[in-house]
User: Which sequence fits this backbone?
């Protein structure tokens, strides 16, 4: 089965850190740019970060710049999102998605399911004291 699997979410206090992982199952991740999205209850899905196949293009939403770092290890078929300085407003379900272009869809603010080749099931991140 071809899919992306996210992990690493959980409950963390404000100011804390988490590292999310996005691992490909059934296909090779290094053919794709990988984006992270998040969706909080009652809000629209928003793009968080994107990394191209060879990490030559990296993008961040303004709301997470300086606090989140995206990276990838193609040998492990995994993309990471290191999150630090977490705030209550970072609380959301975080999803990863794959596209064949170098973060093009992410840069244009495209978030629809059908515009990406694969999506994960999501992992919950809750920032609360």
Assistant:
């Amino acid at each position: 089965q071809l899919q992306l699997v996210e992990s690493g979410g959980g409950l963390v206090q404000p100011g804390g850190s988490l590292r999310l992982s996005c691992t490909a199952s059934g296909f090779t991740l290094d053919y794709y740019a990988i984006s992270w999205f998040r969706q909080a209850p009652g809000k629209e899905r928003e793009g968080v970060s994107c990394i191209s196949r060879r990490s030559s293009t990296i993008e961040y939403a303004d709301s997470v710049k300086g606090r989140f770092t995206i990276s990838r290890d193609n040998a492990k078929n995994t993309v990471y999102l290191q999150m630090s300085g977490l705030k209550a407003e970072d609380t959301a379900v975080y999803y990863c998605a794959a596209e064949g272009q170098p973060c093009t869809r992410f840069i244009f603010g495209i978030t629809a399911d059908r515009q990406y080749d694969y999506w994960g099931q999501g992992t919950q991140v809750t920032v609360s004291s």
User: Anything to note?
Assistant: The two ends are 38 Å apart (CA to CA). The mean pLDDT is 95. The chain is about 5% helix and 45% strand.
